[in-house]
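Researcher: I'd like a structural prediction for the single chain below. Treat it as a standalone chain; there are no partners to consider.
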Amino acid sequence: MKAGLLLVAAMSLALGMGVRPEDTIQREGSGQRRAELDKMELKSAPNIWADLSEWTNGDAVTAESSKGKVVVLATWSSFYRTSHSALTELQKISDKYGKDVIVVGVHNAKGWDNAKTIAEGLKVKFAFAHDATGKVRDTVLQVDQDPDFFVIDRAGNMRYTDVVTGSVDKAVSALVKETAEEAAMVPTRLAEASAKATKDASKSKTIVGGVRPGQMMDVSFPLPDPSAYKDAKWPEKNTGQMSASDVQGSALPKPLGNETWLTKQVKTDGRVIVLDFWATWCGPCKKAMPMIDELYKENKKDLVVLGISDESRSTVENFIRDHPHAYSMAIDQQKTVSSALQIQGIPHVVVISTDGIVRWQGNPHQPEFRTVVKKCIDADPGVAARRKAENEYLKTKGG
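Model: Treating it as a single chain, here is the predicted structure.
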């Protein structure tokens, strides 16, 4: 881990890196692709219109016809049903914002022959076009999976790239309130804010003094020796009936890593992890969510909660859009970990210490669950090591 406050990193805007203090619009993607998409933001949107053809439900969109409008680009494919739900959501946006917003569907090079039939069945009225060569989707927008959403502001700048489905309406709502002149000033305003944040970040005493209780930091530290974990006073294992293989006292039978994060991926180093296996159709799962959310908020400095569903991305994104909560969400349609755990019933939670060992598992509705999580945090040598490193960093930078 790099040394320093995560707060400072978040405030250092670095234009082209997509980091903005007031920006709550969630994006998809990671690694080199995400970095390339970040570079597109706050710059003039690429002129893709000449590369799209066979416009349906209206005239071809051009740079001139889109001038002064908010433009929403959404990629889809007639043969990929997961992307069809995006068309319904886009139609809602088109109906809601009217002439202030231009919605454009960008169809895959393949499957165009059936596109009109699918769109008519979904009662799509906004314009969509064929990316016959794949240039727009593959080269310009670097689409990795349908649907991907991109939002252009009234000044013609690419404001948001590969937006999470649940954040599209929020992004559009913010941009339609701007005039073209206000939108044009955003890059300058953010550059000024970036310069101020960088200047403030150099004043370590002031920044450190402003760290709020529970705020996550990112300081390097070594994990304790295995003997420290062996001697720790862990909570009692769950001896009741559980709807999965009992792996308490061992590592997960299959490691994490095959998940697709739907929310921002967070640091797990030096923090207890709770995995919550759930589904949108599961009543007890949904009933447990407020309690799990409260547990996370009470301990978010020392705890990472990751909800994992095996449903489609659009299904889960639509659900969490309407049921917001603070902890993280991911999907794994291959059921990598849940299958390895032989989970037969949900919700099922797994509490993992900082050395990767499962310390408790069971149903979050069991009365002891909340207490178990807090006991794990208190007993975990890795949590203690991280706290110590943070305190030493604060003393050094604040002295």
